[in-house]
Amino acid sequence: HIDERIDIRGNYEIEEIGIAFNEMLTTMEEIDDSRQRFVANVSHELKTPLSSMKVLAESLLCQDDVPNELYKEFMEDINAEINRETKIINDLLTLVTLDKKESYLNIDNTNINALVEQVMRMLKPIADKKDVILEIESYREVFAEVDETKMYLVFMNLIENSIKYNNEYGKVTVTINADHRDLNIQIMDTGVGIPPESVDKVFQRFYRVDKTRSRDTGGTGLGLSIVNKTILLHGGSIKCLSEEGVGTTFIIRLPLSQTMK
Ligand code: ADP
């Protein structure tokens, strides 16, 4: 009887190991697939500005007497493409750093209101160009243990988007709140909104609802994946609510203290 039991148990364990092994293989295949997709996306995104630069440079090279004005115009376009390429590479490097297993945070007790105000001051010139009003709603100053530099980038990305994808004379309202445990922030805009089928995809790398519009406004499609990664690293969460033609709201929850993570 004992021998039988051992055998049954042994078979059972072998079966379990088999299942776990198959699951591991599937996960590895999935990782491989997503890595391949990522590399394909990166190559495509990096090639686009390069192709434009090549066309511009070649059309200058094949003319003998290029008028000064035309030369300058082409050079400005080449320069804009270089800036775009640089932004994609910088965003990719940021993502790679956040992806690392040993990715760490430089935690400081940070005044969140002051950080948001600083971002708004930086973005005011772009908002003014579209007559978009930037507003903070907060009843008290909130301090939280965060990596200030990384969270500055988070607010920068989100508030810049809410201006970029806003209408003229629109509004952006950042609401800062906290309970005993969490910091709650909402970034709400009165912009173009996101179609329902895209709302869950905006945090994916390189995902853009409208590629042309995003490219025209200098987007790389990586901003929200950097935002999402950073918030997850802090032990928080972010979600997006949106209605086309009405506006978009990003809701962030972050633990006030990293020991409550
Ligand atoms: P991008 O560099 O294209 O702005 P993001 O990762 O920041 O990339 O955003 C991904 C996409 O999500 C954008 O291309 C845009 O289509 C959509 N999006 C992001 N924020 C907003 C917003 N506030 N309102 C409407 N659409 C938005």
Automatic annotation (TrEMBL):
Q: Which superkingdom does the taxonomy of this entry point to? A: Bacteria
Instruction: Output the Gene Ontology terms for molecular function.
Output: ATP binding; phosphorelay sensor kinase activity
Q: Which UniProt keywords apply?
A: ATP-binding, Cell membrane, Kinase, Membrane, Nucleotide-binding, Phosphoprotein, Transferase, Transmembrane, Transmembrane helix, Two-component regulatory system
Reactions this protein catalyses: ATP + protein L-histidine = ADP + protein N-phospho-L-histidine
Where in the cell?
A: Cell membrane
Q: What class of enzyme is it?
A: transferase
What are its E.C. numbers? 2.7.13.3
Protein topology in the membrane: Multi-pass membrane protein
Positions of the HAMP domain: 1-33
Where primarily located? membrane
User: May I have one GO cellular component term?
Assistant: plasma membrane
- Histidine kinase domain mapped to chain residues: 41-258
Q: Could you tell me what this protein is called?
A: histidine kinase
